[in-house]
Amino acid sequence: MGSKGRTAMEVGPDGVALITIINPPVNSLSIDVLQSIKANYEEALQRNDVKAIVITGSKGKFSGGFDITNIEGIQMGKGAQPKKGYISVEIITDLLEGARKPSVAAVDGLALGGGLEIAMACHARISTSSAQLGLPELQLGIIPGFGGTQRLPRLVGLTKALEMILLSKPIKGEEAHNLGLVDELAPPDKLVNTARRWALDIAEFRKPWVASLYKSDKLEPLGEAKQILKFARVQAQKQAANLQHPLVCIDVIEEGIVSGPRAGLWKEADAFQQLLFSDTAKSLVHIFFAQRATSKVPGITDLGLMPRKIHKVAIIGGGLMGSGIATALILSGYPVLVKEVNAQFLQAGMDRVKANLQSRVKKGKMTQEKFERTFSLIKGVLDYESFRDVDMVIEAVIEKVSLKQQIFADLEKYCPPHCVLATNTSTIDLNLIGQQTNSRERIVGAHFFSPAHIMPLLEIVRAERTSPQVIVDLMDVGKKIRKTPIVVGNCTGFAVNRMFFPYTQSALLLVDHGLDVYQIDRAITKFGMPMGPFRLVDLVGFEVAVATGIQYLENFPERVYKSMLIPIMAEDKRAGEKTKKGFYIYDDKRKARPDPAIKKYIEKSQSMAGINLDPKLMKLSDKDIIEMVFFPVVNEACRVLAEGIAVKASDLDIASVMGMGFPPYRGGVVFWADSFGAKYICSRLAEWSRTYGGFFKPCAYLEERAAGGLSLGHEGG
Ligand SMILES: C[C@H](O)CC(=O)SCCNC(=O)CCNC(=O)[C@H](O)C(C)(C)COP(=O)(O)OP(=O)(O)OC[C@H]1O[C@@H](n2cnc3c(N)ncnc32)[C@H](O)[C@@H]1OP(=O)(O)O
């Protein structure tokens, strides 16, 4: 690890030493920055002209926390881990908080993780009202390691501290002030001076000298605290049964309350060092960087292109997808036109958008006033006349090639020449859609996931002739509507659907061989997916599942497993959650219950498949189920990579996490696969392929990686 970041210290005539963290873009605390803070403190404490210290961050940001590249380096054995307690006890507690001269933090922008932990060790905190303060470490699979588990409960009380830490949920300066985490609010231009004055006031005993670590007035009495911790454990287990670190975090907090904050600090240091090397932390750190890497697309984002301003967007089709996309856009302030074919459909579409917004109002996430303002951004239309000043169109009609071709030919006539023409198709070839136009360089895929205003992923599909500028424009809109855009190539299913097609396929194959539907779903949800393949088919609807199946059969006949189970059930009007009956039956609250009546369909499907029940498969362990369901997904991910549909493996990790709910703490599908190794996966697939057919056949890329002993995720191993 190269040297990264520094601090600067300047002593003013008022006797205040101002220490500024300088490590763009977020002033993260690299080991170098921390060493430099230590050196500054040692100097400030020695100098007679320094009475007090203010610590702040350059360019309007206090600090985004411990440098995550340092964490990754330590995990990979490329950097030494500092001695236990060196930073949290020696520097932050004994040197900074225990100093004979008071410190005040001047917080603007953000104080996250280690950033907030340093601020909390100061004797007071001044913040802007908009600054974000939080301890999001759990999102990285670790716990706060610079004393945050001890100081936050003492500053804001246990209940609030647990909420902020367990949910990794930052709060704004304003709320922090109300809670007592921040002592005074100041506008950005007065922040440092207010902090200077406050620091001198402490030094000269006009304000109290508070060491947060020993505060106890906010802590609940011991009996109550234990109850709160017990409840938090139950909640943490309920939310993510596979995760250990939230429980470890609660133990560490408890230690500080029961045995005193210093004991708590040492337990925190122990736990931090251990958790850093856990598979969960490695996976989540990988996801952190993989998510940011999605915005770096070779040949597109490295050309120096600036996104053009999109003033107005039009959506064609007010169905489930169209209304969801429209909702996402107006929520981020884009004026939107929705076009439908008749007044009745248009009204239904507008009602759907309204319902999406109203559900936010009901949940207290949106005020009535904001609702009115947001809804006023949308306008329904029945023709293309008002398309003359739109900068982007997103078509979201049914999956019919001729209809889409007609729409794009019309768009070319009505929209201005710079207008981006996007389609939300999930299966149709983009080149086909644009065939009847002269606008192929501005035709692009904008594949949203349902419900579009909630799901965080946006697949941007690049056809043969799509221009980089159009991609850059759409990436920017994607970011503005808070999606993570991944840029992929054009093929049936693109990256996400293509990777996850085998997910349901292998589940169907297993059922045809005698395995229980509900056992499969249980094993998969225990693994960490939000739902198993059968519950998912119910949600998506059997109609869509059959249509998708046909697409795949046409495009990849050699590796589609032809189960009749879904068509047989659909014929009997069991079409999924919409019809209240699918693989499960549903009550009015959408609660799914297993249904013994599906046995007859399964038996019929088995007999049509002409398969003898396989006693070996009927007794599969959860581990084997996971492998048989997910290794074909990995196999397809390898094909997607080999064909260049995805530019990097980490994009597929993000696609699997954000598009399909693959557990982020397993790092995404390719990262997870690498924990087994290509060789193991390839040999399992080859063995199943011999017994159960071509569906499992390992692809050439996987075979190559296995033979070369290479990982799947990293170029060249
Ligand atoms: C011991 C301690 O308790 C342990 C810790 O402190 S662990 C760290 C805790 N802090 C965090 O988890 C915060 C992580 N960062 C974030 O949530 C967000 O980056 C943010 C809110 C700070 C800024 O978000 P945003 O403005 O959207 O910018 P974003 O694209 O995410 O980040 C900008 C760049 O800063 C980098 N960055 C952000 N936080 C970083 C950190 N803590 N360390 C290293 N790099 C960081 C990103 O990787 C990105 O780099 P890139 O431009 O090369 O891709």
TrEMBL record:
UniProt pathway: Lipid metabolism; fatty acid beta-oxidation
One cellular component (GO) term of this entry: peroxisome
GO biological process: fatty acid beta-oxidation
Keywords, alphabetical: Fatty acid metabolism, Isomerase, Lipid metabolism, Lyase, Multifunctional enzyme, NAD, Oxidoreductase, Peroxisome
InterPro entries: 3-OHacyl-CoA_DH_CS, 3-OHacyl-CoA_DH_NAD-bd, 3HC_DH_C, 6-PGluconate_DH-like_C_sf, ClpP/crotonase-like_dom_sf, Enoyl-CoA_hyd/isom_CS, Enoyl-CoA_hydra/iso, NAD(P)-bd_dom_sf
Subcellular location: Peroxisome
Molecular function as annotated in GO: (3S)-3-hydroxyacyl-CoA dehydrogenase (NAD+) activity; 3-hydroxyacyl-CoA dehydratase activity; 3-hydroxybutyryl-CoA epimerase activity; delta(3)-delta(2)-enoyl-CoA isomerase activity; NAD+ binding
Boundaries of every 3-hydroxyacyl-CoA dehydrogenase C-terminal domain copy: 493-586
One Pfam match: 3HCDH
SUPFAM superfamilies according to UniProt: 6-phosphogluconate dehydrogenase C-terminal domain-like, ClpP/crotonase, NAD(P)-binding Rossmann-fold domains
Catalysed reactions, semicolon-separated: a (3Z)-enoyl-CoA = a 4-saturated (2E)-enoyl-CoA; a (3E)-enoyl-CoA = a 4-saturated (2E)-enoyl-CoA; (3S)-3-hydroxybutanoyl-CoA = (3R)-3-hydroxybutanoyl-CoA; a 4-saturated-(3S)-3-hydroxyacyl-CoA = a (3E)-enoyl-CoA + H2O
Annotated 3-hydroxyacyl-CoA dehydrogenase NAD binding domain residues: 312-490
Name the UniProt record assigns to this protein: Uncharacterized protein
Family: In the N-terminal section; belongs to the enoyl-CoA hydratase/isomerase family.
